[in-house]
Amino acid sequence: MDIIERNFFSLIRSGGLNEFVAVEPMSPYKWRRLMAMAIDRHVEDTVTKGLRSHQYDTGLEIPRELFNISPPPTPSAPGATRPSLANRLLNHRLEAIRHDELHAIDTSVDTLELLDIIIACITTMLNSDVSIRQLLRLGVFLRTRGDRADFVKLDQWLSRLHLQRIAQLQGCILMTGFGFEQDELPFVHRVEPAARQLLNRSLHHGDREYEEWQVSDNKPIFVKTNSRALFRNLRRCMRYVAYAPLETISNLLGNMARSISEIEE
């Protein structure tokens, strides 16, 4: 990571995880680039909070206007819309897990919420690659409420949903960029080497919105697709298929089916 990226994560840890992490001096130009990176990844509120905790540090030369960046719109409350899976069989299992847990003697609402956050991260990864904002949400939950989660149950659920490895990948990204230790992440059983590469990709490309395939029927027989979006989605599928084969392929096929169905409307 270069100095901008190192400071970016230091400020996220300061502003989002309440850690005091040393920040390196930079030129005003690089500070503005850092804020542009934060805005592109929808974490400007967290970075601004981190900047304020360092505003009296000597030698940082932080441009004053960066302390007053407007926060992004407040997202819907967590749990308002529960995440689902693209694979029908796995989604049926997910609904069964939720139903059974809510009616269990030892119900753990916190563990269900952690599962929902992990699935929301997975859905974002499959549709638009690694999201710094979503991973920060996961990190904040683990730091503030992780001790209330039942990780034995979580492991069992992730196994039933065939999501153990992709959840482990998320944990490894938290270790790589957010300063987590492996013992803070009981669902991480081994380090995934691709975590650093995927995090770097997110830093270089940003949290781009998912681009729907543009499908049209200019002629009755021919279907025209946006080839750039098609190949982008195929490449994304290839990156994650080893970590969650059923869900990754179902997500890809589901997106294709939705695009094709629009031809009839």
Helix proportion range: 55-70%
Sketch the topology as an H/E string, one letter per element: HHHHHHHHHHH
Largest sheet: none
How many H/I helices?
A: 11
- Beta-strand residue fraction: under 5%
Helix and strand composition category: mainly alpha
Distance between the termini: 47 Å
Give the CA-based shape: globular
Number of strands: 0
**Rg (CA only):** 20 Å
Low-confidence stretches: 207-217, 219-224
Mean pLDDT: 85
Characterization of this structure:
Helices cover 58% and strands 0% of the residues. It contains 11 helices and no strands. α1 (3-16) packs across α2 (28-40), α5 (109-128) runs antiparallel to α6 and α5 (109-128) crosses α7. It is globular and about 55 Å long. Residues 207-217 and 219-224 have low confidence and may be disordered.
Question: Which features does this protein show?
Answer:
11 helices; 265 residues; mainly alpha
Short description:
The protein is mainly α and 265 residues long.
